[in-house]
Design a protein that fits this description.
The chain is of the alpha/beta class. Helix content is 38%, strand content 13%. It has 14 helices and 14 strands. The protein has helices at 6-9, 15-28, 47-58, 71-83, 99-111, 127-134, 154-160, 183-193, 219-222, 254-266, 273-284, 288-309, 376-387, 411-427, and strands at residues 34-35, 94-97, 117-122, 138-143, 165-171, 199-203, 230-235, 248-251, 324-325, 336-337, 371-372, 389-390, 392-393, 403-406. The protein binds pyridoxal-5'-phosphate (PLP). Residues 39, 99-101, 125, 171, 175, 203, 205, 235, 237, 243, 248 line the site of pyridoxal-5'-phosphate (PLP).
């Protein structure tokens, strides 16, 4: 049997998409569960986005598109950047791709050589670990802890930089913690970054999801002198409710942008024109719809936080950005699920009508022995199987003492899901 390349032989399936698959299988079995796992926006794009997609479909010319990106999308992205107070880029700096994930994959593909180090503040989005590894790089984690609201200090960043550092990856605000660095903090981080010549990859997919009270800005606004090294990554997935349209945009120094254009030309050729036209409409069009959603997320996150924060078994900072909570649940490890617990789980419909392949127990039965909660992975499974609420174990993000809760569901669903988590955790003995 011919063999796979070493870097891909042991590559894992995206762990969050794995949780999604488990959730879908349980739902297909008729289990009524509340899904607070995947970071989807839970709203559909505004009407003008669909209208533009339909117009593009009607205009289809039956040709390949540009490997840099549809002209309307490139222009709309530059317009979006100016709206964010960034006037440093022109068309030659911009490239589009099939979502931020694809662009990040491409960027690491064109900058990393075997053994190059990529410094990443953690907890972080799990895909960073995989795409750096798949490009032959080595992740150097800089851990933020619950005590520091999951933020890292400039000194910790400085200590992680070595002559082997090829890139530093910043995600502001962060998935999974929602931690956001304000203008002053960015000044301090920029001072450290000036001391290295590494690329600075700024994953900004949540950059509009910040509390209005915060003095938030982009790294390039406090340090425009770094523009020759900063790669800004954006996406329409979260902000405009378009995760399935698969459109991302980046603005980078010309040499790197050109390398990604060449990669596109030899891989995807171009972003599908209908999706590109829809994304352009989202970036250029009326922003009030998505800004209203951002405000709703903030309110939902505050609601969920209010339900969790008073528990002595949870340490849950209230973040300034994104739409996640990342409570430290380590106080639950070693506690037991009371024997009666499984009988009080959520209702299950038509339990036997669909063949499920995952190893998840069928509708709860009363358990005879109290179960001891081992760790984050185990707690997540218990929450899924017994409380019927899906969250993501912290280890996937590099922090095994925590869980990630996505707060994008409507307020009632979120409140019910969080109440189930709280009641399950409170019931542990
Ligand atoms: C931090 C972060 N970056 C990038 C992405 C991917 O975005 P896209 O849908 O544009 O690929 C996600 C999606 O969850 C994310 O959380």
């Amino acid at each position: 049997m011919p063999r796979l390349a070493p870097l891909h032989r042991d590559a894992r399936f995206c762990p969050i998409l794995d949780v999604v698959a488990q959730v879908r299988q349980l739902q297909a079995r008729g289990v009524e569960l509340i899904d607070l796992s995947v970071g989807t926006p839970n709203f559909l794009p505004a009407a003008h986005v669909y209208a533009q997609a339909q117009a593009a479909l009607a205009d289809d010319r039956g040709v390949y598109g540009s490997s840099r990106g549809h002209a309307g999308l490139v222009e709309a992205y530059l317009h979006y950047l100016s709206g964010q107070g960034l006037h440093l880029h022109e068309e030659r700096h911009v490239v589009t791709g099939l979502g931020a994930k694809h662009l990040l994959h491409s960027v690491f593909g064109v900058i990393l050589e075997p053994g190059d180090e990529v410094v990443i503040p953690t907890p972080c989005w799990p895909t960073y670990f995989d795409i750096v590894q798949q490009a032959g790089g080595v992740v150097v984690m800089v851990p933020g802890t619950v005590e520091t609201d999951y933020k890292i200090s400039p000194d910790a960043l400085a200590a992680a930089l070595t002559p082997r550092t090829k890139a530093v990856l910043l995600n502001n605000p962060s998935n999974p913690t929602g931690a956001a660095y304000d203008r002053d903090a960015l000044h301090e981080l920029a001072a450290v970054l000036r001391g290295s010549d590494a690329w600075i990859i700024s994953d900004d997919v949540y950059s509009r999801f910040v509390s209005p009270s915060m003095d938030f800005c982009h790294l390039l606004q406090v340090a425009p002198d770094l523009v020759d090294r900063v790669v800004k990554i954006d996406s329409v997935s979260k902000l405009y409710g378009m995760p399935g349209w698969r459109v991302g945009m980046m603005a980078a120094p010309v040499s790197l942008a050109e390398a990604v254009v060449r990669l596109n030309s030899n891989s995807i050729s171009s972003v599908p024109e209908v999706a590109a036209a829809a994304a352009a409409a989202a970036l250029r069009g009326d922003q009030s719809f998505s800004l209203a959603m951002v405000e709703q997320y903030r309110a939902r996150r505050a609601l969920a936080h209010g339900l969790l924060a008073s528990s002595p078994r949870l340490r849950c900072p209230l973040p300034d950005g994104a739409f996640y909570l990342f409570p430290d649940v380590s106080a639950c490890f070693g506690l037991h699920v009371p024997a009666h617990r499984a009988t009080t789980a959520a209702p299950v419909h038509a339990a036997n009508d669909s063949p499920a392949s995952v190893d998840i127990p069928h509708p709860p039965r009363a358990q005879s022995e109290p179960i001891q909660v081992r760790d984050d992975l185990h707690l997540t499974q218990l929450l899924l199987n017994q409380a019927h609420v899906a969250v993501v174990p912290g280890r996937y993000f590099g922090e095994p003492r925590s869980l990630r809760i996505t707060c994008s569901a409507d307020a009632d669903t979120l409140a019910e899901g969080v109440a189930r988590i709280r009641s399950f955790i409170d019931s542990l003995i």
